[in-house]
Amino acid sequence: MENQIQNAVKLGRISEEVRSKCKGFSQWDPNSSRRDHDTILQILIDGRNPNSRDVEGCVLPTLVYLAREKRPQHHHKFKAGAMNALIRVSSNISNGQVILNVDCDMYSNNSIAIRDVLCFFMDEEEGQEVAFVQFPQNFENITKNDLYSNSLRVIYEVEFHGLDGYGGTLYVGSGCFHRRETLCGRKFIKGSKIDMKWEFSGQREESRIHELEENSRSLASCTFEENTQWGKEMGLKYGCPVEDVITGLSIQCRGWKSVYCNPSRKAFLGVAPTTLTQTLVQHKRWTEGNFQILLSKYSPAWYAHGKISFGLQLGYCCYCFWCSNSLATLFYSIVPSLYLLKGISLFPQVWSPWLIPFAYVIVSKYTRSFVEFLGCGGTILGWWNDQRIWLYKRTSSYLFAFIDTILNSLGYSDTAFVITSKVDDEDVSERYKKEVMEFGDSSPMFTVLATLAILNLYCFLGFLNKAISGEGIAEAYEKMPLQILLCGVLVLLNLPLYQALYLRKDKGKMPSSVAFKSMAFAVSACICFQYLY
To answer: pTM of the entire structure?
Structure first.
């Protein structure tokens, strides 16, 4: 397979030898492209054929290849459109009652997970209420200290278990088993039962297979969904970058519950982003989609009210408000540092009793975060990396997602579905394994991050210079303890960024254009603030 793909890439076409072996290629003419082609469908293995066995004699399941029709004049609806086409075609060929959705960069790591899922669906007491069973997304290429905090350790090990206690967790788009009927719009009716038995109707003839292929092709055509409820009340919903979350919420609002299953042996493993750009772009799409849900008619704040438990409603809102958190984080990353440079105190002094509430919140919050992270199997350095990425996401990904969502709501821009690239060259992979952060991209997000990092460094060094030459460090600390602490922590968190700006020589360093722009923005902001105040 690998050799055939490489040969096709070199030739720029499919060789005649391969075309003669695979009838699907006969539909691929010179005018076809990835965005303009007919439906290509082929039943490669018929699971009802007793002769369909592997080399060890085990029965093989039905295997179908599908490439839905795509035309430039018809929007293909990205992943949601592909899923809906697969749901329709599979209902005509196999019509299995349970559907597993796995992203293309993930694979099964625990075959017993299927048995676990069937136990939930077939439970005599509560199984009839379960619409889908969600497994956590785990990755095989996470570094020891989780450089980019891609494992979302606390979310999957703590928060989702909490949501599970309130009637179910979110559908996160991969590693999820669904009842087919719930994806097709069925409402939950108390007392109704779904029979999980599947009857074998016998072997299909070759002519019957060909007829089945022909009949199923129309289900994956561009025009099939016109004037239907697909993408609205049936299948995955359209119009949102996180089609999975909004689909799961709508299913739960129809009375169904979900289950979160997190076995000790991970059910599915995938590939996590290996550069900072990939991580930030991925989180921008997630947070932008969640914020759009909050502002849409399917908002958990009002649409879900009374339809799901209050705890689950709050859980959804927590993720939907990620985007707007950028404003508070941006404020605390800029204003206290600028006032520190000016020598103006914003918080209570050391000996003031009003310092106690601030100290309590800071100590309790970060102690809980630290203990929680280590309790989930993380490392001390991993927790520190998690705090850094927390800062970077909220001052770049979430900020851009917030702005884009507001502009989209006002009609000034359209939502774009950005696929997270998982392909890197050898140098990038080696730096990732050594846990060296990757900044070799001229992304606007890096301009924001570098500007904030330089601004905090300039303010901190400026404060130290004034304190040493003036009233002294001790006196300044008594006057502005929390601002010194905040600015100092921000500088420490940004150490990898300073290295990328000034010390590194490899291709992962910050581009010169970004460095110059960031320095100009940061210094200009500091000078303007000093003159204005």
So the answer is: 0.90
